[in-house]
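Quick one from the shared queue. A colleague (R.T.) flagged Glycosyltransferase 2-like domain-containing protein as missing a structural entry in our internal table.

Convert sequence to structure tokens.
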Amino acid sequence: MDASTPVSVVLPTTGWNDACEQVADQLRPDDELLVVCDEHRESVADCAEARDGVRSIVAGEPEGCSGKANAIAAGMEAAAAERIVWTDDDFFHPPDWLEGLRTDYDRRGPTSELPVFVGRDPLAAALEPSHAISGTLAVFLANVPWGGSLVFERADLDDEQRFLDELRRTVSDDGLLSEHVEFTTVERTRRVAIGGSTRETLENQARFVKIVRYHDPTGTAVQGVLAAALTVACALFPLPMLALTTLWTAAIYAAFGIRRWTFLAAYPVALAAIPLLAYGLARRTFVWGGRRYRWDGTFDVAVEPA
């Protein structure tokens, strides 16, 4: 297939917003945008009806999975095209975003962009160095897909129906996808705001840790060993490690075009690496998108209102 191949864009959201407008403006005549909500929302349905190629999809309440995974599954089942794009509504989609993913697929096959997480509260901002390393650098080096901006085709899945069934039994959509499709991650970033309050940032920390735990247990073990070594080094050699961690993080920021002062928090974040990992592993539940999840295994999820 080539860049003229029709694309179905699956966009889970809670309402019509700027991201919906931005993606709708980039559709070609044979493309479609599926705006997926948990329940019928008249404003979304009206806006979708007014735009060519846009459809409103009702996913229903999730049972035994996250709202995001449930929405992605519903969107893929409703999608008409062979080529699928997943995206989120929490970042700016420039006018060439969809064309970029088309070209990426034709050159590389399944392709993902990269997130840069920007904190909206003091704790989330302080943790930005950790996200730059684990959520941007590590994702890039390991070719891990990010569900906020990726493209693949149905034929890339080893078993599409099994994948959709598993989506409705887990929390992390992109974590599961990484087990079914091999991706290439390109060095193109999207700025995603996270947090908003200390509580929300702690909930995100628990969720991020559990995603790695259940979809990459080896990575969790490696992360633990490295975090322990880093914490000990920072405690024993504070001044050299202050300089080293700050310069190392500044280099990562520069490599990915992150223009934020928060690289200066690299040393205290390194000192807190083990407590942060332990906190995420110890939490029995976490809140995400207005729901509380108990995630006791890759396909063992209980969900209730927050």
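Residues 217-236 form the longest helix (20 residues).
The mean pLDDT is 95.
Added to the table.
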